[in-house]
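[INFO] parsing input record for Leucine-rich receptor-like kinase family protein
[DEBUG] input buffer:
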Amino acid sequence: MTILTTQISFLLLLLLYVTTFHKITCTNHTVVRCNEKDRETLLTFKQDINDSLGGISTWSTEKDCCAWEGVYCDSITNKVTKLDMQFKKLEGEMNLCILELEFLSYLDLSYNDFDVIRVPITQHNITRSSKLVYLDLAPLIFDKTLHMDNLHWLSSLSSLKYLILSGIDLRKETNWLQAVSTLPSLLELQLSYCKLNNFMIKPSIEYFNLSSLVTLYLSGNNFTSNLPNGFFNLTKDITSLDLAQNNIYGEIPSSMLNLQNLRHLDLSENQLQGSVSHGIGQLANIQHLDLSINMLGGFIPVTLGNLSSLHSLSTGSNNFSGEISNLTFSKLSSLDELYLSNSNIVFRFDLDWVPPFRLHALSLANTNQGPNFSAWIYTQTSLQDLYLSSSGISLVDRNKFSSLIESVSNELNLSNNSIAEDISNLTLNCFFLRLDHNNFKGGLPNISSMALIVDLSYNSFSGSIPHSWKNLLELTYIILWSNKLSGEVLGHLSDWKQLQFMNLEENEFSGTIPINMPQYLEVVILRANQFEGTIPSQLFNLSYLFHLDLAHNKLSGSMPNCIYNLSQMVTLYVDALPSDTTIELFQKGQDYMYEVRPDRRTIDLSVNSLSGKVSMELFRLVQVQTLNLSHNHFTGTIPKMIGGMKNMESLDLSNNKFCGEIPQSMSHLNFLGYLNLSCNNFNGTIPMGTQLQSFNASSYIANPELCGTPLKNCTTEENPITAKPYTENEDDDSAKESLYLGMGIGFAVGFWGIFGSLFLITKWRHAYYRFIDRVGDKLYVTSIVKLNNFDRLWSG
Ligand SMILES: *[C@@H]1O[C@H](CO)[C@@H](O)[C@H](O)[C@H]1NC(C)=O
Ligand SMILES: *[C@@H]1O[C@H](CO)[C@@H](O)[C@H](O)[C@H]1NC(C)=O
Ligand SMILES: *[C@@H]1O[C@H](CO)[C@@H](O)[C@H](O)[C@H]1NC(C)=O
Ligand SMILES: *[C@@H]1O[C@H](CO)[C@@H](O)[C@H](O)[C@H]1NC(C)=O
Ligand SMILES: *[C@@H]1O[C@H](CO)[C@@H](O)[C@H](O)[C@H]1NC(C)=O
Ligand SMILES: *[C@@H]1O[C@H](CO)[C@@H](O)[C@H](O)[C@H]1NC(C)=O
Ligand SMILES: *[C@@H]1O[C@H](CO)[C@@H](O)[C@H](O)[C@H]1NC(C)=O
Ligand SMILES: *[C@@H]1O[C@H](CO)[C@@H](O)[C@H](O)[C@H]1NC(C)=O
Ligand SMILES: *[C@@H]1O[C@H](CO)[C@@H](O)[C@H](O)[C@H]1NC(C)=O
Ligand SMILES: *[C@@H]1O[C@H](CO)[C@@H](O)[C@H](O)[C@H]1NC(C)=O
Ligand SMILES: *[C@@H]1O[C@H](CO)[C@@H](O)[C@H](O)[C@H]1NC(C)=O
Ligand SMILES: *[C@@H]1O[C@H](CO)[C@@H](O)[C@H](O)[C@H]1NC(C)=O
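[DEBUG] output buffer:
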């Protein structure tokens, strides 16, 4: 989760970067106000910075350091008082000698990409009477390891009020609490994602005095501890406390209720147990309360209903039991976001209840709502996000339901229910639309031209793709799997220029495969339709494509004989996604996780009427792990180049007319776990002494002239030379050739993987929104779109 969140923060920061980078400073070339000593300090600081991108280029061209980018001087003394280097793309070493600037009160080096921090060795160079009030060193990328061994150097910064070191690796600092408690004026402390692991403080927590603190962010560390009861005595005036994602266990200490000024409390994603005290109703000022993703049990205290300042309430993914009724919410008139998903609570809301709030986000996913759609939800006409997946809903009030779902503006998720409406006359205005696994019937609805994700799979939609869908210019991800859709998809595809993921499996689409495929496509699944004609060569020119499935159609002709430009299947682009990332697809019947990952590359052309020789180009796609050409009419031999496809895990060439011998080089395929060469015209001996013998006879049967283990013995008279022993070097040349080709093809994939896939992965998206939430900001999908475009420019 940490990595996800940090990468996501990285995305956001990039966005901010775009908007702040080109700041133009107005300078006066005639006067040099700058103090000479300050200038020297600044130049020492600059000396170790790698500014290859020119973020602080004015530092060398201007004489007056007060006119340098990011440097601010006092108008009377001309001493440097403020240094703001946020988002300057600085790399190399961050030398904190900069703290020697005598009158510096504000230092912001955040969101850069430094590799090392040099902290002052002794404190005596930083004046005891340091004026520094604000210090922010948080890096742009949290999981890039920017270390700091200890925080001792902080002790001279006696005026410090704001200290932000989030994202710096502080695991070696064994008593961070002691270090920060030497700062008498500290108001705000942010040490999120610092890899802190010591929370139980010795000798005892009361030893420390952090009484001035009002904001404390410690999320994403690894405290693996309970919350000491005295912890909340540290910080009585605190208004914002974030302890999310910390592996904290045990009960919520009752001393928390002393924090009367608390406005923002986030304890989510820990392992807290026990029940929530009724006393929580005393936190009268609380606006944001997040207890989600813990193991809290018992009843949700009815006193929550006293918290009339609440804007955001999250209690989902706990072990709460009992009932919750409209009474609990009767005073929560400011409520804006309500997340109660994944719980067994019984909801007892009167049918005629009209809530006092107007929500922007509501999540009741995976709760026992059904079979009726809760009537009070229809009153929420300002929803941006509505998550009601897996809630057992089958009955809706048609008119109210229609206007509700049309009004949802960001994400509508009704997956995994049994809703059987005809919504063909509606226009859905959200960016993220998930109605999969229901019984929706009739024609497809109209969709906002801003839609990014559309998943309507496993329903009974029929008819063809509406003409209005031509306008889905931002569409990134479309799944129509398993419906009764028909007609041609020709015209639309070329308009969906941003499309990355397309699954039209199991419908009755017909016609030829369009030749103008969007160039960013990563996944193309047209399986089990009625497509006919030849495979357009343009498909093999999609450099991001890593999953191509055209199986079970009526395709004919031979495979295109052009140069295959499928770079993703040749180069293993490691940064694309964390390797444990999965994209959810669904198999008929049960839900299951089907892994589509950039490191799992697939070509499946099986069960068509393809013929002719297989293009040599196919065997140059050395990263392909699954290749299925079975049940076609392919002819010709398997080239020994196949030995270069070293990642192959599953190879099916069965039921074709392949002939000739099985190349010795196939024994290079060390990961091969499934092989089927049956029902062809292969001849000669199965290469001996290799793992090709570990497959049983069914992998080879129905090749009348093929022999050797596991098939029948070859008779030596017929075949005197074929029983030669396996030799290591025979195919080295071809293997090397493939490898070489793999390296040759461009590295230009850029960050596309990260950006592209953000849309595909629920987990990420939620983390993304959570992050936005934490920052207290609201950047909506338009920003994602901007990021998208920005990245594209960047990766060129
Ligand atoms: C630049 O300096 C000159 C000479 O001191 C002064 O007259 C002028 O107002 C200054 N301009 C700006 C923009 O500060
Ligand atoms: C500075 O950064 C650039 C780009 O990241 C890199 O190519 C170069 O080697 C770096 N120089 C030093 C001295 O670190
Ligand atoms: C302290 O400052 C002096 C000169 O002002 C310098 O020679 C010395 O290297 C500095 N020490 C550290 C630890 O930065
Ligand atoms: C903590 O420090 C503040 C001022 O710095 C002081 O007023 C307060 O009494 C101290 N509290 C404890 C428990 O030492
Ligand atoms: C967190 O801490 C626990 C115990 O101290 C340790 O076993 C675990 O590996 C740590 N996790 C991470 C991600 O550092
Ligand atoms: C915390 O403070 C309260 C009063 O403010 C006091 O009653 C309690 O004993 C303190 N707890 C600890 C563990 O210091
Ligand atoms: C808080 O809620 C409880 C139960 O709903 C109620 O009895 C009590 O009067 C409320 N307290 C305040 C201060 O509103
Ligand atoms: C959840 O609560 C039930 C009682 O409501 C209890 O039996 C069960 O052990 C709890 N599960 C966990 C994981 O705490
Ligand atoms: C709300 O809940 C209370 C208690 O469950 C009930 O008495 C009341 O009639 C409900 N309905 C409305 C519309 O508030
Ligand atoms: C859709 O609109 C048409 C024309 O207005 C109407 O005939 C049809 O009954 C509507 N379908 C549904 C499901 O409301
Ligand atoms: C296998 O068949 C090919 C023709 O398809 C022939 O040239 C070759 O000699 C045969 N090899 C053996 C060992 O029979
Ligand atoms: C096949 O040949 C091996 C030795 O080459 C022999 O041990 C085995 O019995 C033979 N099997 C058959 C079915 O002829």
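[INFO] Residues 28, 30-31 surround 2-acetamido-2-deoxy-beta-D-glucopyranose (ligand 1) (CB under 6 Å).
[INFO] shutting down worker
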